[in-house]
Structure formats: structure tokens, C-alpha cells
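Subject: sequence -> C-alpha cells, single chain

Hey, anyone have a minute? Need the predicted structure for the following. Not urgent.
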Amino acid sequence: MWLAWIIRWVLILEYTIGGSAVARGISPNLALLLGGPESLPAFTARHSVPGLGIVVDPCAAMLLFVVTGLLCVGIKSTFVQSILQLQTFMP
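Reply:
Had a minute. Here:
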């Protein structure tokens, strides 16, 4: 039981890190698609926190939510499909 719990949290961490890397990589391309970084609304533009050296990218955060939503929909549909297939094979 505890091994399944550890594996679940490792997968969640892996999807979070992988998804954030993808969102951070796609964010500049999405900005170019929407007309360039200067044409983005103020709430989606990148901001840097003075003194800390941290860059906040709301566009990447929105992309991360979209990727996470797609992942959740895919997991749910796969789960439902596997249950339906299991019912057809059982007498």
C-alpha cells in the first residue's frame, strides 16, 4: 500500500515538473503567435520580481493548467474505457 502511495506522488511530481518545463518552453512561441510580447495584455506578460531574480510567467501558468486538464481528461477516459472493456470480457 505504501509503495503505491509513493509511486503516485512520484508520478504527480514528474508530471508537474515536466508540464511546467513544456509550458515554459511554449510560452514565448505562444506570445509570438499572439503578436509578440509587446502586444500581450499586462496580466499575461512576464514580470520579474526586483531583488529576488524571479521571473513570473502567467502565460506559462495558464498553459500548465491546460496541459493538466488534458491529462486529467485523458486519465478519466482511459479509466472508463478500461472498466468497459473489463465488463465485456467477464462472463
